[in-house]
Amino acid sequence: MSIFKKITYNIKHNKKDKPILNKYEEDEFQEATECYICGKEFEENNKVREHDHLSGKYRGAACQSCNTKEGKATKLIPVFFHNGSNYDFHFLIEELMKHEDEYNKVKLLSKNSENYISIDYGSYNRKLRFLDSYRFMLKGLSDIAKSMDDFPILEKEFSGKDKKKNIVHYEVLKDYIKLGMKVTKVYKTISFKESDWLAKYINFNTEQRTKSKSDFEKDLWKLMNNSFYGKTLEDIRGRSEIKLLTDREEVKKYKKKNFKDSTIFNDNFVAIENNVTSVKFNKPIYLGQAILDYSKQLMYDFYYNVVNKLWKKMN
């Protein structure tokens, strides 16, 4: 944003109304008989030196009409986010508002307060336009990337790079080695005791789900397992502290650096939201990672050792 703001500021304050031509460019201009933009022959006193108003660089001989249109044309730079309307734009709009000034403004085209179709940032003649590519490319990014063959060098440089310093369970690693993965270096190993201490809880919920007689009960017992897993990988850094206050003097005490937002319900009732100043990392992330690793192992095993072998036999 800072680079873009500098460019628009320079356009506003360092505008070069007179083109900068060397001897050869001046000779070329004098000899030109057609507009380099529209291709029409010049009429009498209709030829001008069309140039970049930021650098003063001469671009070519143009007619008055094309020169005027070129000067007024808005230079639009599209920036695409995949599924930005439903996710990334919410973070983006907060950051853009921090950079809004008298030259660069933020404008929205939206369906409602939560769903943005596009976001414009910039001045009248220089804009960044943030768009959601998912609106016209209704597939995941991985599928879209597979269908692209325009950038073979990019694919060559950034796909299939060697994996380094991965943390993986030994049992999972053994399966990967059977499938062809080569281990070139082991940085560190950690030993620990394992037990199926969670099995009774998982099996109980699964059994109760099979006995369920309604969709509500099925969803409940399924959630009892899934939510437990979610808690093992929960990110606690983005939490807020909310205080409900009814005293004006108490409200004044909460004018702190970590203030985030406030909601006024009535004259005597307000909610103050503050960012938390410290976080205690007490979630068993190692457990969530183990569950992810094992689930990935099961999927790979099913694909390579079951589906793949059956497919080869059938064909």
From TrEMBL:
In terms of domain of life, where is this protein from?
Eukaryota
Q: What is the lineage of its organism?
A: Eukaryota, Metazoa, Spiralia, Lophotrochozoa, Mollusca
Q: Which PANTHER family match?
A: PROTEIN CBG23764, RHO TERMINATION FACTOR N-TERMINAL DOMAIN-CONTAINING PROTEIN
Q: What is this protein called?
A: DNA-directed DNA polymerase
Q: Which organism is it from?
A: Mytilus coruscus (Sea mussel)
